[in-house]
Automatic annotation (TrEMBL):
Protein name, per record: Phage major tail protein, TP901-1 family
Entry superkingdom: Bacteria
Entries under NCBIfam families matching the protein: phgtail_TP901_1
Pfam families found in the cross-reference section: Phage_tail_2 (PF06199)
Organism: Periweissella fabaria
Amino acid sequence: MAYVDNGVTATKGNPLLGKKVWYFIQSTQAPVGSKALLPALQTDGSTSIEGDSIDEQTKFGRIVMPSTNEDSIKLKTYVVPGDLAIDVIKDAKHNGNQVKVWRVIVDKRFATQEKDDSDPAKTHQVFPAMFGYGVVDSLDLDDGDDLVSADYTLNILDKLKEGTFPLTDDQLAVLEEMYEFERPGQSSGNFGTDDATK
């Protein structure tokens, strides 16, 4: 046998932080043109790429073949007044509807530019994403002594699809900041409870 050395490929760098992976959802009942919802105060998110395999023994050896896709997304958030995401999940579970879900890597190192179909001279910043239609497996609201949390699992129809998700720098700034600078006397009340959040 002839000697073959095809070399190796190595990747170095800082790893992706979990806080740079955001999950967005949308009701399948939302009208065309509706915005995606970013569930408030996401604490945990996990994506499972799973499925069954056919595994049989024969006289001539073992046969292993892919059989099904069983992808799922599990999210945990804290409940915040005005967060419509919990209502979307609850409504979908109670009424047998599906939920659209996106897993987006919101890290500038992964961002690329896409051309605008309506104006080829323009480009838009996009981030890698996976998308799927999910069926709500369960919604657990934990009303313990601490913060009220919501825990839910979406079982994905077929499998998660690869694509991109557009986010401008202005949108990122708004989503990453809890509140903006203000001058004395511009608002009144505590942040999160009164007019200061409006």
